[in-house]
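WARN no homologs supplied; continuing
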Amino acid sequence: MSFAPALHAEWLKIRTLRSLIGSLGAVVLATAAFSALSAADAADTDPLFTVYFGVSFGQIAAIAFGTAAMAAEFRGGALRLTLAAVPDRRRWFTAKATAIALPALVVGLVTGAVTFVVGRAALGAGTTAVPAWSEGVRGAVGCGAYLTLMALFAAGVTAVLRSGVATLSTLIPFLLIVSFVVGDVSGGVADFLPDRAGQVVLHSDWDGSLGPWTGLAVTALWTVAALLAGAWSVGRRDA
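OK structure emitted
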């Protein structure tokens, strides 16, 4: 099977699983809702990150989407059936990653735009300074790219661990707890963690060693490493 039919087959899997569609919807809802709450009670000096504060929660839904989409292949012998149709494991893995990335990017960009509009309106209702629309464009694009990278990062880790439960049990505590603890005690080293680096693009000002786009580049490197490890695992281990 060539790449296009393989991609179409993987897209059908994602489109027909309600849990995956629900995860994508949760990305928008969680990010916009928590951002609105943060903006309504703003005490932060960084207005752009106040608007995008909800990304810290929306990324959990993005990770759940990438994890569930990949983990479905490792349940009930599904991967054996998939590889019977697409024997080239690298082609299948590329199709799977692409099928995860495209909807994640679309939903991420929508999330970025909706969150900025909602958060800016909530800030404008008070006395806190609001971010400029030019910053909003950067934030919306950065939000879409960041959420896509985190979904793919989770998919790569899942391909290595072959378990959605193990992936979520590892990544969610890391993002919600470990990353903040490491950031408080390690100084600039924490700037290079995948979540902290990628979220620099959502700040008006940042005094760390990375800029908005170099931070996303660091997150992209983490994602590429996870996907390469996942592809290696799929190629070397029994289905």
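Residues 179 and 190 are 7 Å apart (CA to CA).
OK
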